[in-house]
Give the backbone structure.
Amino acid sequence: MNGLYRAVIRGVGSYLPETRLTNVEIEQMVETSDEWIRTRTGIAERRIAGPDEATSDFAYFAAKAALDDAGLSPEDVDLIIVATETPDYLLPPVACQVQARLGCRNIGAFDLHATCAGFLSALQVAEQFVKSGVHEHVLIVGADTLSRFTDYTDRGTCILFADGAGAFVVSRGEEQSGEGVIATTIHADGTYFHNLYIPGGGSRTPYGEGAKAKIVMDGRKIFKLAVNVMASTVEELLEKTGRKKDEIDWLIPHQANQRIIDAVAESLDFPPEKVVSTIQNIGNNSSATIPIAVDTAIRDGRIRRGDLLMLVAFGGGLVWGGAMVAY
Ligand code: UT7
């Protein structure tokens, strides 16, 4: 659907906590090996929160970096959306903490929970507000602190999860410019919810009443679903836009496991050198992985203005989605 305007990515930023959790340290916690983790996941170390850090800290720093990159000040922001599944508190939203800490006007600020596809869901929401002319600058952040919900006695999950944040400033551009968000799509299939979830800490089983507030995952099942839905999302966006696979400059998938990233590229017959991967030294920090990967590839000179990006994600829910963006 064409709107009045185009939603363009005016600024990008990210933030990673300084604490590193290496495979060698994980070897001390569970029965595993550095070699196994590297070959089965592509991860060597992950960035995790220090004792005094939480999601709103990462979100704030990433948001500030994105605003600086956009050349905008906090007063310019019209709406803040934070995609997260690990807020500092169940109440209030992280977005309100970010609004106050940045010193924005009393604009709208809310969290969006769509697990690892949260950032792309936020991008789709921001796109609608900007295209329709309701807002000029929407700040979207993907921020998570999975380490606080990771069971470090479970070798099937503790090898993957990490913390951090990334952000975009989505701003009004001209419809004819050809820049910005070209198409977005999101999907869900809640029948798979129990394959990746946190049993305790919610309204069904409040914290301290039996069920653990730690991630439980059927890794093998999620792996297969992830490859299928991310590949089909790329195909869907190509079909929707009439663009060809070889027009895509960079494929930026959710950083869940290097083998998932490779399998998606392989099933699409997409050149591996055009796939952005940052998982090796960061790990999987859920809704933060895509904006961090985009920011990393911009800073190291791979992604340039005008490049055609294909962003694609999946996560617990099951949720999945994608976006085609001319950066
Ligand atoms: O955004 C988050 C969404 N989550 C994901 O994307 C996770 C998707 N899944 C995965 O990344 C992978 O399934 C894992 C990395 C979690 C597991 O890798 P896998 O290649 O699928 O292993 P598996 O579960 O099929 O297990 C293979 C073997 C098993 O042993 P047996 O039964 O063959 O004797 C496991 O017990 O590997 C064993 N194993 C391990 N061995 C050493 C499982 N985890 C480990 C480990 N170290 N950490």
User: Anything to note?
Assistant: The domain at 180-326 is CATH 3.40.47.10 (Peroxisomal Thiolase; Chain A, domain 1). The chain has a mean pLDDT of 96.
